[in-house]
Amino acid sequence: MERTLVIIKPDAVRRKLIGRIIQRIEDKGLEIIAMKMLKLSREEAEEFYKEHIGKEFYESLVNFMSSGRIVAMVVEGENAISVIRKLIGKTDPYEADPGTIRGDFALKLPENVIHASDSKASAEREIKFFFKEL
Ligand code: CMP
């Protein structure tokens, strides 16, 4: 069993897509074992995305991720990290295939609706970031 961190981003919360996104995760057979709604401060968003410091989109990413409420969740299942990455589609919604969450619900970066950890190491760090108790 593997665990991964998923975030429903501020654009999706504003657009009332929470229910439909959770439905897709559960339909796939994955289990949500922890979940919370919160608003990241600017400093928290900077810390969460620190691996992107220096990239040209960093400022707009931090602004976006601290612009409204998000839903953070821990998702568990067989190969959960790669299964969720397939389910959400490519980072750029323009490149994401129809049928994926980003392909179906997002139009342009950085507003790509959902985040999921990209490796075991980032899953561990990101789960700790939001759910110290796990
Ligand atoms: P995420 O999977 O959360 O990882 C980093 C985020 O940065 C990504 O989703 C997008 O929201 C954003 N991002 C990545 N590349 C770009 C880009 N070229 N322009 C704007 N935003 C980007």
Write up what this structure looks like.
It is built from seven helices and four strands. It is of the alpha+beta class and 134 residues long. The protein has a single domain, classed as Alpha-Beta Plaits. The longest helix is centred in the C-terminal third of the chain and has 11 residues, at 120-130. The chain is globular. The relative contact order is 0.25. The mean pLDDT is 97. It binds adenosine-3',5'-cyclic-monophosphate. Adenosine-3',5'-cyclic-monophosphate binds next to loops. One of its GO terms (cellular component) is cytoplasm.
What keywords describe this structure?
Alpha-Beta Plaits; binds adenosine-3',5'-cyclic-monophosphate; 4 strands; alpha+beta; single chain; 134 residues
List the helices and strands and how they pair.
Blueprint: E1 2-8, H1 10-14, H2 18-27, E2 31-39, H3 42-48, H4 58-65, E3 69-77, H5 80-88, H6 101-105, E4 114-116, H7 120-130
Antiparallel strand pairs: 1-3, 1-4, 2-3
The structure holds adenosine-3',5'-cyclic-monophosphate (CMP).
Adenosine-3',5'-cyclic-monophosphate is lined by residues 57, 61, 91, 109-110, 112, 115.
CATH architecture: 2-Layer Sandwich
Strand content: 15-25%
Q: Please tell me the overall pLDDT.
A: 97
The number of E-state strands comes to: 4
Assign the CATH topology: Alpha-Beta Plaits
Gyration radius, rounded: 14 Å
Q: So, the CATH homologous superfamily? A: Nucleoside diphosphate kinase-like domain
Q: For the largest beta sheet, what order do the strands appear in spatially?
A: 2-3-1-4
Distance between the termini: 15 Å
Biggest pleated sheet: 4 strands, antiparallel
| Helix and strand element order | EHHEHHEHHEH
| Relative helix content | 40-55%
The molecules bound to the chains, other than polymers, are: adenosine-3',5'-cyclic-monophosphate
Please give the count of helices: 7
CATH class: Alpha Beta
Main location: cytoplasm
Subcellular location: Cytoplasm
Pfam families: NDK
Keywords: ATP-binding, Cytoplasm, Kinase, Magnesium, Metal-binding, Nucleotide metabolism, Nucleotide-binding, Phosphoprotein, Transferase
